[in-house]
Every structure is written in C-alpha cells, then in structure tokens.
Amino acid sequence: MSEPASISTSIAARYATAVYEIAKDGNAVDTLETDLDALKTALSESADFRALIHSPIYSREEQGAAISAIAAKMSLSDTMANTLALMAQKRRLFVLPQLVATLRDIIAAEKGEVTAEVISAKELTKAQAEKLAKTLKASTGKTVTLDATVDESLIGGLIVKVGSRMVDTSIRAKLNSLQNAMKEVG
C-alpha cells in the first residue's frame, strides 16, 4: 500500500471508530447507515461534491460552509454533520470515501455481516443475486450483502471477492489462462 493511501486509511479509521462509537452510544446506528447511503450516492453521482472534498483551492471556511449546507440539504444526522464540519475544519474531507467504506465495514462486522464485491458481465437478476448471496452465506457462515457492478469486458461469468478471497469464473480470465498455456507450449 502506498504511503498516502495508508495515511488516508489511518485517518479514516480514527474518524470512523469515533463516529461509530457516538452513534452506538446514542442508539443511532440505523440513522448512521442512512447517512452513509446518502453520502455514498453523493460521492458516486456528483462530480462537484468530489471536487469539493478533494480540491485544495477551497479554504477551510469555504469547505466548512459548503459541507454544512450539503449536510443540511441531505438531512444528515447531527453526528455525521458535525463530523463532516470537523473534517472540513481540519482539512480532512479528502478521506470521506475511505470513512464511508470503513464505517460500513465496522457496522457490518458488528452485525455479523460481510460484503461481497461481485463483478459480472451482465447485471444480475434478483433471483441470481439471492441465490449467490445464499451460496456465499453457506460458505462464510455470515449474512452476505452483495455490492454488484457490471464489467462487460468479462464477456461472461463472475468475479466474487469476499474479504481476502477472490473467485474469478469470468470467460476473460479463462481465455487469458488458455493464452498463457499456449505461450508455454510453443
């Protein structure tokens, strides 16, 4: 892991632990999950929001005012709004994506859940997703939440990542394997 990524992860972990403990003490973990959904959507859909948290051209005051207005507009909880304001004041908004991911991991671990990252060539149907989740639950012994994305370059099949384990059943991987085997032969 590169040093800047390690630093970002470390900062995010400290904030995530603190936010989770505050939410847990206030019996507001469900509210925190709602906040995380809203922030994840905003991060993925708004280039302006991403620019605000990553760009050094905005002053602390500008970032703080903007993030407070965004938090109010998104109806974020006081805990999350105050955390974002503190992060803006300390020039730490750049770790927001890692904060969201780390908080999700903490909440999932507390609930005995695990998230499986699934990349497929085509979008999974509801029945396929349910069957995959059920199969993964049987293998991990935990409730599995799927984080599904589509990558048409796979041609067919799936790539499933659960924790440190990965299973690649894509046609692209099989073709690459066959190509490597043919190189070795001749």
UniProtKB/TrEMBL annotation:
Keyword Cell membrane on entry: yes
Subcellular location: Cell membrane; Membrane
Annotated membrane topology: Peripheral membrane protein
InterPro entries the UniProt entry points to: ATP_synth_OSCP/delta_N_sf (IPR026015), ATPase_OSCP/d_CS (IPR020781), ATPase_OSCP/dsu (IPR000711)
Gene3D superfamilies, per the entry: N-terminal domain of the delta subunit of the F1F0-ATP synthase (1.10.520.20)
Alphabetical UniProt keywords: ATP synthesis, Cell membrane, CF(1), Hydrogen ion transport, Ion transport, Membrane, Transport
Family: Belongs to the ATPase delta chain family.
NCBIfam families: ATP_synt_delta (TIGR01145), PRK05758.2-2 (NF004402), PRK05758.3-2 (NF004406)
HAMAP family named in the record: ATP_synth_delta_bact (MF_01416)
Function: F(1)F(0) ATP synthase produces ATP from ADP in the presence of a proton or sodium gradient. F-type ATPases consist of two structural domains, F(1) containing the extramembraneous catalytic core and F(0) containing the membrane proton channel, linked together by a central stalk and a peripheral stalk. During catalysis, ATP synthesis in the catalytic domain of F(1) is coupled via a rotary mechanism of the central stalk subunits to proton translocation.
Name of the protein in its database record: ATP synthase subunit delta
